[in-house]
Design goal:
Rossmann fold; mainly alpha; three-stranded antiparallel β-sheet; about 10% strand; 9 strands
């Protein structure tokens, strides 16, 4: 509102602006006054809250305490007035209290007798506890003796075990069950006898038996491992042969499917023409799929563009005809193993109008939903193409224009009419350049 206005503003508008500015000033003054009033009210509120907490609540507590004292004094005055009438009641209550006191004395004597009986029982239990503790101490001493003996026996066991390890491997008769019934003295005599006989033998490899047992164990493990490896090798070879067989069958099946669809697609793109794909071999294959695949040397494509006896190979075709053959191969592969979408960059650049129209119809059919051979609904393939020809525009569903300006490309969505206009202008510009060069 504070900016300068141009000459286009009328006098009425200027007058209205001044009126609005006056109203705005008055509203600002009113807002300031309201804010001051609100501040004063806040201060007043705070003062009242302070007085309430510091004075009025304290006075309320004092009044409540005075009221409580007054209520306590009023019953006491009533009792003094009714004292003569309550004297008889007090005497009766006194007699009842004396009778209760006598009963309590009897109850006290009974409790004393019960306490003496409990004390005697406690003394008996205390004596039993002392005996149990003494017996527990004796059992602890006996346990210490047993533990000491167990430790000594464990040390002897470790010593004997070390001696047995030094002896090396023992024959089977060394573990004769009849020796368990012999005394330690008899066993020591047997050991001395064996030691003397061992000394007579002279220099003998005492570890030979251990080494023999170890070598036998290692040999058994190696033989077992060899058997596992042989079995694994056999399984791997069987798997490789199975996979090779599947691979070769898949290669033949895929080529047959591509060759079949190549013939169909070529007849659709080139009306009146025909095309065939053939696998080249060295004529040394056998009956199995693996032997046949091993003999394959390449692929030969022969096509015929017009009705007649002439059949051409790829080397005899022109640039546009090679483009058509390549497109037929792509669409044949697409029918064999469909992909979700394809991107084509000016695939119709080297084609004439008839072949461009056939290509556009083919893309339109391939992009539509269809029912496969098994009866299931399939979604069509999406094709993204760039072109400077109108045939693909007529078959398209969505169009984008790409422009280049200021060293930057811009992509925007356009309709079919705009796309055809851009292509027409481009063709006219190219025709003008061609005439200028002539």
């Amino acid at each position: 509102m504070e900016s300068d206005f141009g000459e286009a503003v009328s006098a009425a508008e200027l007058e209205q602006r001044e009126q609005w500015q006056t109203e705005l000033g008055e509203l600002k003054k009113g807002r300031v006054a309201a804010e001051r009033k609100r501040a004063k009210c806040g201060q007043r509120k705070q003062a009242l809250e302070t007085e309430l907490h510091e004075h009025l609540e304290k006075r309320q507590r004092e009044l409540e305490e005075g009221l409580g004292q007054a209520e306590e004094e009023q019953p006491r005055r009533g009792k003094e007035a009714a004292a003569p009438d309550a004297l008889g009641q007090a005497q009766r209550k006194l007699k009842q209290a004396e009778q209760g006191l006598a009963d309590m004395g009897k109850r006290r004597e009974e409790l004393r007798e019960q306490q003496r009986a409990e004390k005697q029982t406690f003394e008996k239990l205390k004596a039993q506890l002392s005996e149990e503790r003494q017996r527990e101490a004796e059992e602890a001493k006996e346990l210490d003796k047993l533990l000491s003996r167990k430790q000594m026996l464990q040390l002897k066991l470790a010593e004997f075990t070390e001696c047995i390890k030094k002896l090396g491997s023992l024959p089977k008769d060394a573990f004769d069950e009849s020796r368990k019934s012999q005394t330690s003295k008899q066993l020591m005599n047997t050991i001395d006898k064996c030691r003397k006989e061992l000394q007579k033998l002279g220099h003998v490899n005492k570890k030979a038996l251990d080494q023999f047992a170890n070598f036998n164990e290692q040999r058994d493990k190696l033989l077992e491992r060899q058997g596992e490896l042989d079995e694994a090798e056999s399984s791997i070879k069987t798997l490789i042969e199975h996979l090779d067989h599947k691979k070769d069958e898949a290669m033949e099946r895929t080529f047959k499917g591509v060759a079949k669809f190549f013939q169909q697609v070529f007849s659709e793109l080139v009306p009146g023409g025909s095309g065939k794909m053939k696998m080249l071999t060295d004529h040394s294959g056998g009956a199995s799929a693996a032997s046949r695949v091993a003999s394959y040397t390449g692929i030969s494509i022969k096509v015929q563009f017009v009705a007649g006896p002439d059949t051409f190979t790829m080397e005899q075709l022109s640039g546009g005809q090679k483009t058509m053959v390549a497109l037929c191969l792509i669409f044949a592969i697409q029918r064999t193993d469909p992909a979700p979408f394809y991107i084509f960059d000016e695939i119709d650049a080297n084609l004439d109008a008839a072949h461009r129209a056939s290509l556009a119809r083919m893309i339109e059919r391939q992009s539509a939903d269809y029912v496969d051979e098994s009866g299931e609904d399939r979604q069509g393939t999406q094709f993204i193409t760039t072109t400077f020809r109108p045939e693909l525009i007529h078959a398209g569903h969505k169009f984008y224009g790409v422009t280049h300006r200021g060293k930057a490309s811009t992509v925007k969505s356009i309709d079919k009419k705009e796309a055809l206009r851009i292509i027409t202008e481009d063709q006219n510009r190219l025709a003008q350049h061609a005439k200028a060069r002539e």
